[in-house]
Write the structure tokens for this entry.
Amino acid sequence: MENLASTPRASSALVFAAKYRTEERELADRLLIRRATPEDAPALSALAFRSKAHWGYSSEFMDACRGELTIGAQQLETRELHAFKALEGDELLGFYALEVLSSEACELDALFVAPEHMGRGVGRALLEHARVQAVSFSASVLVIQGDPHAAAFYEAAGARHVDDRASGSIAGRYLPLYELDTNSAHGVGNNKNAK
């Protein structure tokens, strides 16, 4: 029987996968995750809008989503949202916002990565940080309303598709709803620099 890893195609795929994992680990070593401040609100909102637009949505669609993609300074000031930003040096790579729903559940209100940094492990590091934060609030479940383009990302992280939820921006549009067991880090990357 032929060793598939020895074929040129499989061999180049393994080299790519190893290189990708190495680059992801190197980024994780440089990535800092910090609490977002009210002063960060405009930059977070702009990043959310740019990240969503990356998926090719029409300008009409994006305009309809603008309110839902806007992070208000007051939300961060009152800690209505527990928001954290991912930085490499001074560069904002992504962020997430977490809302405490109950003593058992938190909701990932937002998770966005700058398009030029997608696929580098930033989203995985943010999701792992969000999972740990949810645990700190005693939540056993992290509820996630995801964009359909993010389905594979959340499923690879161990989230289960449990339902669909009506969009808050587009009438008649339904978005996948996931649950992630906070006691399991299945598929969610670790970031030792998360604070």
